[in-house]
Design a protein that fits this description.
five-stranded parallel sheet; 46% helix; DNA Cyclobutane Dipyrimidine Photolyase, subunit A, domain 3; 7 strands; Rossmann fold; two-stranded antiparallel sheet; Serine Threonine Protein Phosphatase 5, Tetratricopeptide repeat; alpha/beta; binds flavin-adenine dinucleotide
């Protein structure tokens, strides 16, 4: 009997730099690549009544899986696709097909690792091995200069230590031959409406920063466009806080979230760019941001389920979060009466993407100004963000809500100051709030102060075609 291995693709939907998959092709005579759409990932989040995976993310995931299947077919293999609970489907399949081992990518957060444990238990009964490969970060956890349990709680301490003492491993080559056993049912790709309710399907909004399409092929194309064709890496540090357009930042995040691109692949490309074009603060800064991504992944390993509780990784029980649905709904729908917040929330709702600056401001507004339980905001982001990544999302929300690892006490975003700084001409706000298009730049971020004559002149009628603010806002102007 030939040695058979199942390779279970999860958030590592790529062929390049995929250690686990490469190893499967080297260790076995036959490899069965499979992706399982975990139906639990599409359930509603109680009590918010929103799907755990919203339409933008579902569409991106489907495209990524389809692209992986296409790329495997080009190599003479294929990708099996199933819908259901991975631990049940995979253990039964392994038993039926006489598989010796299941290989997969290791995840960091609770739900995902619970599934690993459940699968491993089921496999033990059949005497089938289970091997996991850590392949989602720049630095491998085994190469860190400390145990994960002793991970520094301040990012700068972590970054300096790894930069000085750890090495980033090289990428792995793509597998060449991938022999698939004959006679196995490949499985049909699900339609998007089988995963989420049809009524939630989004239409493409032309204002979206980029027409994001899932898959490794698109990811590598974006890397080439951003670095080499448009030559944007050399100015990344200056432009990364932008709000409009495709190239103010890399937009690698959705592909990184599903593992369509490996962070080490990006790193090696940065090094090549530095050798062939220029090495400067900007080229370094992209790597710096990828280290942030690593950090939240290791923080997740260190703190486990605490990441998902309102008390956060600090276990801070002092903050009296409220559960006002009315405030939360206004935030979600971009109806707070604060133009900068509403523009960002409408962009998120209509496109599934939001700039880092936007995310920081809306998160701070929900947690610090509205004092709504921040876990609701994080859950909404989980549903809506096309680049949702469990560690980056919940880690950043902990941080902004003041229950994470921000060493600064009571850090607070003055939304008015932020809006004036990052959207000085009001272009961003006008893009997403066309009802404010006649308001001059100098007044647009404090539209709530327009008197009746000005409201008539600029065709903004507070409380009618633009909401009155739901918090006391002039405090920002006084500071
Ligand atoms: C409240 C909140 C929630 C967030 N949720 C997510 C999320 O679910 N998924 C996600 O990928 N990022 C998240 N981020 C981080 C960051 O906003 C996005 O990674 C970034 O905006 C994606 O755009 P980009 O790829 O153009 O980023 P770039 O500026 O081009 O950065 C390059 C890469 O570095 C990483 N990165 C950059 N900033 C951060 C950061 N603060 N934390 C972790 N990684 C970072 C990302 O992988 C990003 O793709 C969140 C930030 C906040 C404040």
């Amino acid at each position: 009997m030939p040695k058979r291995i199942i390779y279970w693709f999860r958030n590592d939907l790529r062929l390049h730099d995929n250690e686990g998959f490469l190893k499967a092709t080297q260790d076995a005579d036959e490899v069965i690549p499979i992706f399982v759409f975990d139906t639990r990932q599409f359930n509603e989040i109680a009590p918010l009544g929103i799907p755990k995976t919203g339409a933008f993310r579902a569409k991106f995931l489907l495209e990524s899986v389809q692209n992986l299947r296409d790329n495997l077919r080009k190599k003479g293999s294929n990708l099996l696709v199933r819908l259901g609970k991975p631990e049940v489907i995979l253990s039964e399949m392994a038993r039926e097909l006489g598989v010796s081992t299941i290989y997969t990518a290791k995840e960091a957060a609770q739900e995902e690792t619970d599934i690993e444990t459940a699968l491993s238990k089921k496999l033990k009964v059949y005497n089938i091995d289970f091997e996991v490969f850590w392949q989602s970060t720049l630095y491998h956890p085994r190469d860190l200069p400390f145990w994960v349990s002793c991970l520094p709680d301040v990012f700068t301490d972590f970054r300096k230590a790894v930069e000085q003492q750890s090495k980033i491993r090289s990428t792995f080559a793509e597998p060449t031959a991938i022999p698939l056993p004959e006679g196995i049912e490949i499985g049909k790709m699900p339609e998007i409406y089988e995963l989420i309710l049809f009524s939630q399907l989004p239409s493409a909004d032309q204002r979206c920063v980029l027409p994001f399409k899932g898959g490794e092929t698109e990811a590598l194309h974006r890397l080439k466009t951003y670095f080499w064709d448009n030559d944007q890496l050399k100015t990344y540090k200056e432009t990364r806080n932008g709000l409009l357009g495709a190239d103010f930042s890399s937009k690698f995040s959705p592909w990184l979230a599903y593992g369509c691109i490996s962070p080490r692949q990006i790193y090696e490309e940065v090094k090549r760019y530095e050798a062939e074009r220029v090495a400067n603060d900007s080229t370094y800064w992209l790597v710096f941001e990828l280290i942030w991504r690593d950090y939240f992944r290791f923080i997740t390993l260190k703190y486990g389920s605490r990441l998902f509780k309102a008390s956060g990784i600090q276990y801070n029980l002092e903050i009296p979060w409220n559960h006002r649905r009315d405030l939360f709904e206004k935030w979600v729908n971009g109806q707070t009466g604060v133009p900068f917040i509403d523009a960002n929330m409408r962009e998120l709702k209509l496109t599934g993407y939001l700039s880092n600056r936007g995310r920081q401001n809306v998160a701070s507004f929900l947690a610090k100004d509205l004092q709504v339980d921040w876990t609701w905001g994080a859950a909404y982001f989980e549903s809506q963000l096309i680049d949702y990544d469990v560690c980056s999302n919940w880690g950043n929300w902990n941080y902004v809500a003041g229950v994470g690892n921000d060493p600064r006490e009571n850090r607070y975003f003055n939304v008015y100051t932020q809006a004036k700084k990052y959207d000085a001409q009001g272009e961003y706000v006008k893009t997403w709030l066309p009802e404010l298009s006649n308001v001059p730049a100098g007044l647009i971020h404090q539209v709530w102060n327009l008197d009746t004559t000005a409201q008539q002149q600029y065709e903004v009628h507070l409380g009618y075609n633009f909401p009155l603010p739901i918090v006391e806002v002039n405090k920002w102007l006084r500071k």
